[in-house]
């Protein structure tokens, strides 16, 4: 096997995730009327399947095995994301008017998650062949070489941010592209220019959608009292936003993290997972982990 230590660490992390799912899904199982081990069993199945797939892939030649898999994920998931708005309701779940999940054999799968893996592989595969030499290259030449990747990213951005209405995933992909370019040896000036451009696009997408503006305001509302203390009152008054609508999920996730302290309250002793914080066994699992295992557990 290529790296036994890495394989062992990944397997341990998957095992820890199974334990966490069991601990944090206690209220959710009652809410949905399923067996207490329902989510833990599902996680166990996928966990052991993942470990087996990793082991299987490690036995062969990565260049021969990973290339078709990586490109299948990259191209196949992109095609699925384009097709999802046209698929019938019994195949695709609509959340907030956007279709992001495909129902397969009782499970819901998000093609964008597979696309991210394929996107990373495509960048690594391409960069290793095209971005190996930078000697004497100016920023203009770097931009010219970047153009094909820019078109690919803009296409992905359109599909994910416009069609699927998911700006967060675009931010993840954009940062992935930027940092992989940096690690591939691009100049700092080129990296900084792209970063500024990405920030401008990000602000554009925020201020052209009311729900994104409200989300940013809700995040700012949580931190504004601490931050605005350092400003004169006249300036603070201009920056302060009303907090009539409490950002429920964010507020309770931060409360859970605070409640965990340094060492946590102990496994299964968390309280915010008991209906106060929804999706604590999935989207907000970090908050549940921090409450039960504390800052040390998060590290």
Can you tell me about this structure?
This protein folds into two domains: 60-208, no CATH class; 225-298, no CATH class. The chain is built from twelve helices and three strands, in the order H-H-H-H-E-E-E-H-H-H-H-H-H-H-H. The chain has helices at 4-24, 26-32, 38-58, 62-83, 111-130, 139-163, 167-183, 188-207, 210-227, 233-239, 248-260, 285-298, and strands spanning 92-95, 98-104, 107-109. Strands 1-2-3 form a three-stranded antiparallel β-sheet. Helix 1 (4-24) runs antiparallel to helix 3 and helix 6 (139-163) packs antiparallel against helix 7. The two termini are 28 Å apart. 19% of the residues are buried.
Structure at a glance:
The chain is mainly alpha-helical and about 300 residues long.
Topology:
Blueprint: H1 4-24, H2 26-32, H3 38-58, H4 62-83, E1 92-95, E2 98-104, E3 107-109, H5 111-130, H6 139-163, H7 167-183, H8 188-207, H9 210-227, H10 233-239, H11 248-260, H12 285-298
Antiparallel strand pairs: 1-2, 2-3
Helix pairs in contact: 1-3, 4-5, 5-7, 6-7, 7-8, 11-12
């Amino acid at each position: 096997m290529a790296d036994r230590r890495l394989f062992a660490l990944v397997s341990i992390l998957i095992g820890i995730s199974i334990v966490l799912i069991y601990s944090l899904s206690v209220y959710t199982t009652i809410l949905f009327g399923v067996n207490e081990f329902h989510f833990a069993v599902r996680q166990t199945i996928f966990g052991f399947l993942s470990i087996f797939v990793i082991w299987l892939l490690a036995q062969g030649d990565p260049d021969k095995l990973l290339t078709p898999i990586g490109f299948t994920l990259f191209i196949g998931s992109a095609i699925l994301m384009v097709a999802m708005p046209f698929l019938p309701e019994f195949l695709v779940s609509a959340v907030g008017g956007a279709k992001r999940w495909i129902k397969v054999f009782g499970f819901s799968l998000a093609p964008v998650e597979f696309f991210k893996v394929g996107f990373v592989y495509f960048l690594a595969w391409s960069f290793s062949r095209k971005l190996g030499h930078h000697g004497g290259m100016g920023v203009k030449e770097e931009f010219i070489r970047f153009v094909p990747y820019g078109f690919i990213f803009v296409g992905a951005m359109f599909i994910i941010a416009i069609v699927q209405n998911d700006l967060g995933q675009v931010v993840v992909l954009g940062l992935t592209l930027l940092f992989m370019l940096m690690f591939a040896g691009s100049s700092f000036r080129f990296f900084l220019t792209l970063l500024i451009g990405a920030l401008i696009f990000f602000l554009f997408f925020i201020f052209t959608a009311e729900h994104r503006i409200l989300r940013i305001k809700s995040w700012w509302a949580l931190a504004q009292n601490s931050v605005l203390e350092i400003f004169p009152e006249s300036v603070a008054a201009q920056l302060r936003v009303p907090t009539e609508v409490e950002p429920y999920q964010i507020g309770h996730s931060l409360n859970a993290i605070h409640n965990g302290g340094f060492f946590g309250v102990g496994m299964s002793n968390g309280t915010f997972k008991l209906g106060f914080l929804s999706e604590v066994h999935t989207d907000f699992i970090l908050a549940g982990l921090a409450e039960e295992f504390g800052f040390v557990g998060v590290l």
